[in-house]
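Team,

Forwarding the record for the chain on the shared tracking sheet. I've put the sequence and predicted structure together so nobody has to dig through attachments.
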Amino acid sequence: MENLLQIEDFKPHVGKLVRFKGTRFAFPLNRIVSDRRRLPKGAKRRPFILVFRGVKEHEYMPDGIYECEIEGGPTHTMYVNPIQTPAPEWQEYQAVFN
């Protein structure tokens, strides 16, 4: 069984470009959102969200499971989906790890 991905696996890659294999899309890893409260008993990792940000276009990347190639880093398979983005010039996407 593969080890669970942790927030520490992604911290060094904030700001780097992530390519979503099989699509024309590539977005920088904009930020990582994490709740710093005490972990519940039995939790295997601290929940976190990766947020990718790209310029808003007419066409957006549909939600789905993608092989995500991090520039100068590893490739991870994860579920990514578009999220409501208040800034009119940006479209954000997230990958949630519970």
